[in-house]
Amino acid sequence: METxxxxxxxxxxxxxxxxxxxxxxxxxxxxxxxxxxxxxxxPSGSGKSTLCRSINRLETIDGxxxxxxxELLPQEGADLARLRAEVGMVFQSFNxxxxxxxxxxxxxxxxxxxxxxxxxxxxxxxxxxxxVGIADKAGSHPAQLxxxxxxxxxIARALAMQPKVMLFxxxxxxxxxxxxxxxxxxxxxxxxxxxxxxxxxxxxxxxxRAADRVVFMDHGQIVEQATPAEFFDSPRTERxxxxxxxxx
Length: 248
Ligand code: ADP
Ligand code: MG
What we know:
By secondary structure, the chain is an alpha/beta fold. 38% of the residues lie in helices and 24% in strands. Strand 1 (10-19) and strand 2 form a beta hairpin. It is globular, with a radius of gyration of 18 Å. Magnesium ion is lined by residues 48-49, 169-170.
């Protein structure tokens, strides 16, 4: 297997994953450059979430290798915890701690994992909440926030670990339509600021605006990769054409 060059932030080589008899990821090769925004699209069940979860080692893989910033993702141990902290993840459900304030939700992990002093972590958390537009909610509990605000808090929480890469798995799918825009706006600014991002989404407008590259998955395989303009205006495969017909 070829060693990826130093300019690759996330690199997958021949990644395979089964759930029982189901072959969910089939020899996936993917390189994401620093500052690149890759949007992953594809039908339900095509393996998009499993791909994200594998990069964060929430799933083990059966074959191939995954590197983050050149480092091989280990199966377990202290190196795994350290590497995992470099990969921020935002899910469809916000997973905030219900009994903590929004500020605590953002400040807790840096204190526990990165050993940042509490006061400093809280200062940084406030800055992040300001960046995602909800500094005024710092003292509230998650249930007092709208879905869009909760998801922005979840993004701030992921950013608090100073990740090298951010993974988003359908971050707006659980939101009321009127709140989708505010979350996509935060993601768009993050992209503009140069964050390396892998985003699974059905928001094709966001893909067109923010993606450097669109990756189309079907049945556990990467079927096409192209710039948004190429992918949306002239998809090369019948599978991509019928997928686009179903979502656009
Ligand atoms: P997507 O995110 O593209 O909808 P997933 O990665 O969630 O696809 O799922 C890919 C396939 O793997 C689906 O057929 C799904 O049912 C199956 N799958 C996902 N997670 C599990 C699991 N923990 N156990 C068994 N099958 C799973
Ligand atoms: Mg999914």
